[in-house]
Amino acid sequence: MTIPDLSFLAQDLQRAARCDPNGEVSWPISLASIAIEALADSGRLILGLDIRDYSSDGTFMEVPWSSYAGSDVEEARAFALSVLSHGDLPGDWVLITW
Q1: Has residue 9 got a pLDDT over 80?
Q2: CA end-to-end span of the chain, whole Å?
Q3: HSE of 14 in the Cβ direction (CA atoms, 13 Å)?
Q4: Which of 4, 2, 3, 27 shows the shortest CA–CA distance to 16?
Q5: Which residues make Cβ contacts (< 8 Å) with residue 35, sequence separation at least 6?
Q6: From the CB of residue 31, how many other CB atoms can be counted at a distance below 10 Å?
Q7: What's the maximum distance between 2 C-alpha atoms anywhere in the chain?
Q8: Predicted model pTM
Q9: pLDDT of 44-63, one tens digit each?
Q10: DSSP secondary structure letters along 16-28
Q11: DSSP code for 57
Q12: What pLDDT shows up at residue 1?
């Protein structure tokens, strides 16, 4: 898998993204809702969120946080934003799968 093309996103979101070689893309929790909005605005279906906490050596702990099995972009956006707002997330990054 290759790193995804994020050129459809604003440059600040592109710069803030953590792109892994396997194609996964994460954003800091502080920007996750903005990333979800931008992805949905561009027609991307938000399929899931995982919360990650990275160590200084690059390893991470990951907690599956949500998954969406439907096909409605707006419903997926609302669902992702609602589960992200629960607070007290177990990490500093949100892996967004679309």
Answers
A1: yes
A2: 14
A3: 9
A4: 27
A5: 9, 13, 17, 27, 94, 96
A6: 17
A7: 38
A8: 0.92
A9: 999 999 999 999 998 999 99
A10: H-EE-TTS-EEEE
A11: T
A12: 46
